[in-house]
């Protein structure tokens, strides 16, 4: 008879215990074990890291009720695999770790990777031992498997020295297959539980992951249907009773826990997942059903403890629960109140799903994934916000189809779980939705899955951080000292997948995400979708919106109207004038002047004006920016995109920090839309940020100098601008483009704390939409135009980028939606009335009107100073400005200016901590 090595004896013993798959990493001295396992017909999946490998074994134990097996090399390998050992022990899932060890005779001599592994594992396992001989291996394997699966499931460890693995024996008898005993609850305790349930007015069943592990779905569904009681699944208890069951109260979780007078815990432990019982009513009576006696009454007093195998005990309870009941659980006021509460929460959730702002929120991304998942999908959820928010989004109709970090909340379990789940659920698709931080723990297991030919779909929810990240601008601002939660923005994780032979997709919009999901679901290989979402926390409101609201509260509700007197001194040809400013102090609005005769600037019939060259230049630059041909290069990044009620896309320039390109489609002819958008006097009708406007001076050729006063966007920001505007017909459309003529030569008022935001470029290009584009965009009717709008700000000072980004992604789309609605009700015309009538009065006559009037009698530009005795040209001059303020105002501004960061930090911290504390409620 041929002899057997220790490795072969172990392989046969594992086969005897029903092992189908072993997860491991080979090396000295366990290579022979992996080879022997494969020779016995057991599948071996080789991993890249022992932690992921041990998590896979742990998940296999949960899914199958059979101990998952992990194979690790000696020393560091066993230490790494200890993560899965503890994970299994805390979650009560059966697992067996087999670790190699140095030769027995070399112990204590400093052998290769020598370590006291049995002693290390003993505190964290139910069984930890080393066979003294090869002949003891089968018995030790059976004992390890029985210990792992019996009673309260957990982990076992078997230590195999190299001499035992490589040694030989003539014959070994196999031990019997493990068969854990199961038991029923005390009938007297069951009768007491029935009495409590019959007398309950607001009962609640809490279905834990222990019910899913115990395969008690049939019995629990029968109990729910018979008793008609509301139930609440814990995250991994979802699907034991289908989530679409009318008695599922997940959407009213907090109200259900606090309002119940009798609570039945079905394989659910009263730990952090149930807030340690602190949200239960103080008078609630608790009935706990669990296989573990030591779990009974932890953190809460029990009215009844039912110890036993969960399916058997639930069947006992159902059989004994014959009524009559004090109140009909299915028609009680408690249930009606929970249903109403849940309906409101569901409505709020649906609104979150419909948020089309870009970057996407968690909810919008999850909604796109959810609607495409097959009914039998296995969803692996890992991460902080990713896992927590996903719990409220994805529904399950089958048990053990949702895997997450569970009670121990380990990060790094995602890909190990997914590999184990796909190895078990061969006919179902496994989708892992993981946060970018969590993905980093086990990213190289993508290669493991590709090598094992497992058609996983991995969706990385990339918010560039742990909990929350930074966008590129914020990242560069804080590059020297980054927050501890920050990761590199927008890492290209999909390229890792491509590098190991899988398909990779980078998505930034819901449409791109949906398309990538559709393609991945049709593929028979591994796919990774790198889904870029909003970096800030997006539980309900993004932090930038919160900051903006705080700024508004502090500055624009608390600070009263400021009245000041501004004196502009005459400098080089500018006549001195005095005016009063009401509202926040703003910079002087100065036209540039030179000792030049009025006849230099002439009407269109007599030749060009002095700004003609500048107008031609900004027209050229606008066209290049509108068509991606920017002089300073760099692509545009989509910040937000709306498809309804009108298509609107806002893009940010990759190089210029405060430059935005907005493309939208309006239901009007180009001429009609242009007449509304390019007429500066009509701008306050639709622009959410514009306060007042005035045409200061017409220059001819459709060009003018305009005054624009903006609404407050920052407490110390100037809100007035003097722009040169250039209007021209271009091909089949119309162009309006403007630029600030103050530039850097106007005093910036830094001593006063005033921030300037000049217009380096601002305007619109309006063209007709072709039939093909109307079909592609789904635009009904023929009367549509396309508008490309550029807003390029040249800031002199500091305004938070989050405020600027908020304006670009919120205020711009709101204004342009108003434009489209207004145009939809306006009769369209193919002729631009604005171009036909603009500046019909000769400029020389208009200049005579200006010079013959005083500011007091006829103010041409409200709150501005006009050069009344000199002609405006392109040559700049300086100006000296003095602002007198009340003493109390000076102190108020100083206090607010320097106290603001502390106030904002404190308020933001309080609100964020509140959200994080209650996010599981």
Automatic annotation (TrEMBL):
Ranges annotated as spanning the membrane: 894-916
InterPro entries cross-referenced by the UniProt entry: DHS-like_NAD/FAD-binding_dom, HACL1-like, START-like_dom_sf, START_lipid-bd_dom, THDP-binding, Thiamin_PyroP_enz_cen_dom, Thiamin_PyroP_enz_TPP-bd_dom, TPP_enzyme_TPP-bd
The keyword Membrane belongs to this UniProt entry's keyword annotation: yes
Name of this chain's protein: 2-hydroxyacyl-CoA lyase
Phylogenetic placement of the source organism: Eukaryota, Fungi, Fungi incertae sedis, Zoopagomycota, Kickxellomycotina
Record-listed E.C. numbers: 4.1.2.63
Pfam families linked: START, TPP_enzyme_C, TPP_enzyme_M, TPP_enzyme_N
Reaction catalyzed: an (R)-2-hydroxy-long-chain-fatty acyl-CoA = a long-chain fatty aldehyde + formyl-CoA; a 2-hydroxy-3-methyl fatty acyl-CoA = a 2-methyl-branched fatty aldehyde + formyl-CoA
Cofactor entry: Mg(2+); thiamine diphosphate
Main location: other
Enzyme class: lyase
Function recorded in the entry: Catalyzes a carbon-carbon cleavage reaction; cleaves a 2-hydroxy-3-methylacyl-CoA into formyl-CoA and a 2-methyl-branched fatty aldehyde.
Annotated ranges, domain START: 636-828
Family that this chain belongs to: Belongs to the TPP enzyme family.
UniProt organism field: Coemansia pectinata
Keyword Metal-binding part of the UniProt annotation: yes
Location(s) in or outside the cell: Peroxisome
Gene Ontology annotations of biological process type: fatty acid alpha-oxidation
Superkingdom, taxonomy of origin: Eukaryota
Annotated keywords: Lyase, Magnesium, Membrane, Metal-binding, Peroxisome, Thiamine pyrophosphate, Transmembrane, Transmembrane helix
GO cellular component, one term: peroxisome
GO molecular-function term, one example from the UniProt record: thiamine pyrophosphate binding
């Amino acid at each position: 008879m041929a002899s057997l090595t220790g490795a072969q004896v172990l392989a046969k013993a594992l086969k005897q215990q029903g092992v189908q798959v072993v997860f491991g990493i080979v090396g000295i001295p366990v290579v022979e074990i992996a080879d022997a396992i494969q020779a016995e017909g057991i599948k071996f999946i080789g991993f890249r890291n022992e932690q992921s490998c041990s998590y896979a074994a742990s998940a296999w134990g949960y899914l199958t009720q059979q101990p998952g097996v992990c194979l690790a090399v000696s020393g560091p390998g066993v230490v790494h695999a200890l993560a899965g050992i503890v994970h299994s022990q805390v979650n009560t899932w059966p697992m067996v770790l087999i670790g190699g060890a140095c030769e027995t005779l070399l112990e204590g001599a400093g052998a290769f990777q020598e370590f006291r592994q049995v002693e290390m594992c003993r505190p964290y396992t139910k069984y930890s031992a080393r066979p003294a001989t090869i002949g003891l291996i089968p018995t030790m394997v059976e004992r390890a498997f029985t210990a792992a699966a019996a009673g309260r499931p957990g982990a076992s460890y078997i230590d195999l020295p190299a001499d035992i693995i490589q040694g030989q024996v003539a014959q070994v008898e196999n031990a019997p297959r493990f068969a854990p005993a199961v038991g029923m609850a005390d009938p007297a305790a069951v009768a007491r539980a029935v009495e409590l349930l019959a007398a309950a007015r607001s009962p609640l069943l809490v279905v834990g992951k222990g019910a899913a592990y115990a395969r008690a779905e049939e019995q629990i569904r029968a109990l729910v249907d018979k008793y008609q009681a509301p139930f609440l699944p814990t995250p991994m208890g979802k699907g034991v009773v289908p989530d679409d069951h009318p008695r599922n109260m997940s959407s009213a979780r907090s109200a259900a826990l606090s309002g119940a007078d009798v609570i039945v815990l079905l394989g659910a432990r009263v730990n952090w997942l149930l807030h340690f019982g602190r949200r239960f009513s103080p008078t609630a009576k608790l009935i706990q059903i669990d296989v573990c006696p030591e779990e009974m009454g932890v953190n809460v007093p029990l009215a009844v403890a039912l110890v036993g195998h969960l399916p058997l005990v639930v069947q006992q309870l159902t059989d004994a629960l014959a009524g009559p009941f004090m109140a009909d659980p299915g028609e009680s006021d408690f249930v009606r109140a929970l249903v109403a509460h849940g309906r409101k929460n569901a409505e709020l959730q649906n609104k979150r799903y419909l948020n089309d702002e870009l970057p996407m929120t968690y909810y919008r991304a999850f909604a796109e994934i959810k609607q495409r998942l097959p009914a039998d999908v296995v969803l692996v959820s890992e991460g902080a916000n990713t896992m927590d928010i996903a719990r409220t989004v994805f529904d399950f109709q089958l048990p053990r189809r949702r895997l997450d970090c569970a009670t121990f909340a380990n990060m790094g379990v995602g890909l190990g779980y997914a590999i184990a789940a796909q190895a078990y659920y061969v006919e179902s698709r496994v989708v892992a939705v993981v946060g970018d931080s969590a993905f980093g723990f086990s990213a190289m297991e993508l290669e493991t899955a590709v090598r094992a030919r497992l058609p996983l779909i991995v969706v990385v929810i990339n918010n560039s951080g742990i909990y929350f990240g930074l966008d590129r601008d914020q990242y560069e601002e804080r590059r020297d000292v980054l927050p501890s939660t920050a990761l590199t923005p927008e890492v290209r994780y999909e390229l890792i997948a491509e590098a190991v032979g899988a398909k990779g997709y980078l998505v930034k919009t819901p449409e791109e995400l949906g398309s990538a999901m559709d393609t991945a679901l049709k593929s028979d290989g591994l796919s990774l979708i790198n889904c870029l979402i909003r970096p800030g926390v997006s539980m309900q409101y993004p932090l930038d919106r919160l900051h903006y609201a705080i700024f508004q509260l502090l500055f624009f509700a608390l600070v009263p109207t400021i009245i000041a007197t501004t004196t502009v001194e005459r400098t080089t040809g500018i006549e001195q004038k005095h005016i009063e400013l009401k509202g926040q102090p703003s910079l002087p609005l100065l036209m540039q002047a030179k000792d030049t005769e009025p006849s230099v600037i002439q009407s269109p019939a007599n030749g060009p004006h002095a700004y003609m060259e500048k107008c031609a230049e900004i027209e050229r630059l606008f066209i290049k920016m509108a068509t991606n041909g920017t002089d300073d290069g760099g692509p545009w990044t989509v910040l937000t995109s709306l498809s309804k009620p009108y298509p609107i896309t806002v893009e940010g320039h990759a190089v210029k920090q405060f430059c935005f390109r907005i493309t939208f489609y309006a239901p009007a002819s180009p001429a009609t839309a242009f007449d509304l958008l390019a007429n500066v006097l009509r701008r306050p009708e639709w622009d959410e940020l514009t306060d007042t406007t005035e045409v200061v001076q017409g220059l001819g050729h459709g060009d003018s100098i305009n005054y624009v006063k903006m609404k407050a966007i920052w407490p110390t920001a100037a809100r007035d601008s003097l722009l040169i505007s250039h209007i021209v017909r271009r091909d089949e459309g119309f162009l309006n483009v403007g630029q600030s003529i103050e530039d850097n030569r106007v005093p910036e008022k830094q001593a006063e704390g005033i921030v300037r935001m000049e217009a380096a470029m601002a305007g619109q290009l309006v063209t007709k939409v072709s039939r093909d584009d109307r079909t592609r965009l789904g635009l009904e009717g023929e009367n549509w135009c396309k508008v490309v709008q550029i807003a390029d700000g040249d800031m002199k000072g500091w305004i938070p980028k989050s405020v600027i980004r908020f304006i670009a992604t919120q205020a711009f789309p709101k204004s342009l939606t108003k434009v489209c609605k207004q145009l939809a009700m306006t009769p369209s015309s193919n002729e631009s009335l604005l171009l036909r009538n603009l500046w019909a009065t000769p400029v020389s006559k208009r200049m005579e009107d200006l010079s013959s009037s005083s500011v007091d009698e006829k103010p041409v530009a409200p709150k501005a100073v006009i050069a009344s005795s000199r002609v405006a040209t392109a040559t700049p001059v300086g100006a000296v400005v003095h602002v007198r303020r009340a003493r109390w105002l000076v102190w108020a501004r100083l206090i607010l200016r320097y106290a603001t960061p502390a106030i904002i930090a404190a308020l933001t911290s309080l609100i964020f901590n509140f959200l994080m504390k209650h996010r599981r409620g």
